[in-house]
Amino acid sequence: MFSARDIHSLTDFQRNAKDHVQRLTDTKRPEILTVNGKAQLVVQDAQAYEEMVELLYSLKQISKSVKDSEDGRTKPLDDAFSDIKQRLLSKYPNAKI
User: Fold this and answer.
1) What are 38-85's pLDDT values in tens digits?
2) For the structural domain made of 1-44, what CATH number should be given?
3) Is 33 helix (H, G, I), strand (E, B) or coil?
4) Is there a contact between 31 and 40 (Cβ–Cβ < 8 Å)?
5) With b meaning 16 or more CB within 10 Å and e meaning fewer, what string describes 22-60?
6) Domain residue ranges in the chain
7) What one-character DSSP code corresponds to residue 91?
């Protein structure tokens, strides 16, 4: 995921912040910042970060759904639609469903 061009020292980032921000914005790739040669921080464009968080949330929801299915906490589609229809008819008795 990361390449050598994504690794920079914190000092370089501080001295050339404007250039780094422009690169982060243009490429949407995160940068690893090092202190004394060791990875210390990751900086990322806000839009890319938001997309990553949304993707992680979606993956967690999919994982939860798979676990629910494996554990038998699901119902057949026809049963689910039948339940929804019954709830709608109890709330809207004159509805044509």
Assistant:
1) 999 999 999 999 999 999 999 999 999 999 999 999 999 999 999 999
2) 3.40.1620
3) strand
4) no
5) ebbeeeeebbebbeeeeeeeebebeeeeeeeeeeeeeee
6) 1-44, 46-92
7) H
